[in-house]
Amino acid sequence: MYNFPKSFLWGGATAANQLEGAWDVDGKQPSTNDALPGGKDRLKIIDSDTFDWQIDNSRYRYPNHRGIDYYHHFKEDIQLFAQMGFKCYRFSIAWSRIYPNGDDIRPNEQGLKFYDAVIDECLKYNIQPVITISHYELPLNLAVKYGGWKNRQLITFYERFAETVLKRYGDRVQYWMTFNEINSAFHFPALGQGMIPSTGSKDYTNVFQAWHNQFVASALAVKVGHEIDPNLKIGCMTLYITSYAVDDDPINQLANLKQKQDFNFFCTDVQVRGHYPASTQRIYHDYNVDQSKLIQTDADFKLLAKYPVDYIGFSYYNSSVVDVTHVHQEKAQGNLNGGVRNTHLAESEWGWQIDPVGLRIALNELYGRYEKPLFVVENGLGAIDKPDEHFMIADDYRIDFLRQHIEAMAAAIDDGVYLMGYTPWGCIDLVSASTGEMSKRYGFIYVDLDDNGEGTLKRYKKKSFDWYQEVIKTNGENLDWPNQNKS
């Protein structure tokens, strides 16, 4: 196995909207995520024609309002990250903490001070912050008043927000990402683009317009960041799902190629290469995009060309199988982008197909296409953890999952891939983005809180805590602590 470079950034990842809580504290106004109901039907509710962004406590529970109260526990949590030996910590900044309504002229100083404190606490333990500027949320006002990212006015508002945080924290934070899982809007525009059916999310003309506006906003963030300090590293962030054709039928092989071009590469092509890919016209045709309605200027294209991102951050959880000839009828239950079940793979409790080899493939595909540094900024296993009477959690299943994926990363490095670091998702238990549940846990640290919001909020180390501590300590050389059996 290839040795991980000494500079490799081991750490963990979270998002503001899923753990901070304090949703209406110190000047913060609601974000789009604060309006998302909790429960397994969350995504169905927000994808319905009747959903209107209204917060209705009489009908729904909103677990993001409390999160795990990281807002008041961040020092304790970061100290636990330091015990594990984190070299970096990926987190996001809640836009509505800094600009409560999104279109405000002046930032909220109390919000800025909170992230000053978070960053300083990280640096106290020599943990490098890796900041996502916009992670699946925007001020609710921008979704309600402006209709979300389809409105070009959001470019100005985002540029103001990005410039504010880059100037404020750029002397202490080197690594940034502009938008989280930007390509996920193919399936859920509400999360990344702030659009719902009543504001046009089911019309792909709006989705592609929103993407274009985000591409321009991302380029402006790169421009501003490099003007502040040329050494700042500002990346994109995409959701990568390795895909396979179900068989050797050329029709399925072609469909798989289109799947990669559409989902895995379209957004990244624009942000990394600085121009739209050759497949754009075909993609517009396939998704019934009315190009006459798209607002894309020459100035936009010049900006995209001049300010591509410095690296590619991506999430990897599972792979999918493409079948357009219907030779295999059993659908995969947990995959974001559908597909049929892969009979060669095990599945998580939520039906996500576990495929560590797919991560090695993803790393090779991305690096082979772009030859830019890569950063695995999300990867993990959502599972139901059952603590004993002493709150001990023997999560060997999580250790096994992560070990296999780390082995895949090491193999990809041996293949010649330039990999910067690894921040497994949900390094501390938090509210699930897809279901609003606490029971779908990813962390090395257990938080005593259930799906009904009951619990002490106390933190407890899982078995995986000590295992990951050893992984970081040995720079990925010892993956079998304590004599973990490989599956």
TrEMBL record:
GO terms for molecular function: beta-glucosidase activity. GO terms for biological process: carbohydrate catabolic process. Gene3D superfamilies: Glycosidases (3.20.20.80). PROSITE patterns: GLYCOSYL_HYDROL_F1_1 (PS00572), GLYCOSYL_HYDROL_F1_2 (PS00653). It comes from the Bacteria. The active site is at E378 (nucleophile). Keywords: Glycosidase, Hydrolase. One of its GO terms (cellular component) is cytosol. Belongs to the glycosyl hydrolase 1 family. This is Beta-glucosidase. The lineage of its organism: Bacteria, Bacillati, Bacillota, Bacilli, Lactobacillales.
